[in-house]
Amino acid sequence: MGLFKSETQSSYVKRELDKIRDVIKPYVKKSSLFSFISFPMIIFSIINLFALVTNFALTGEIILIIGLYALMGALGMAFLKESQHLNRKIQHNSFEYILERIKKSDYLTDFQKETYLENMEKSPHKGIAIFSEFLEQEEQRKKSL
Fold this sequence. Notes:
This protein is mainly alpha-helical. It has 4 helices and no strands.
């Protein structure tokens, strides 16, 4: 979310970036929660599995405990995988929002919009910077009309 903060951006650009933030906010919360839960579960289970396997004889009780720690580790891995899935969804939704917003602009020419859309397709990792540039140009165009 740090990409959205900049002191040099106009209020117009900040409002539009806030709209993107609102679109992805529920996914960010879930992804953060799953990541926060998954890492301790995985680490805790690996450490305890290692300690149990190397220090104790394999009795019925130890095998049951090993199974529980393995289950905990698997659950942690599932949470991590879900977090990664949500992160991809966040990127996709923000990218789609930006593309739609550029297409809907009434202030720029079709050629300018196509240029921004092509730049987005070529460099999706620079999406926020390209979108900010688009918004600044749109704002200038709005003011001149």
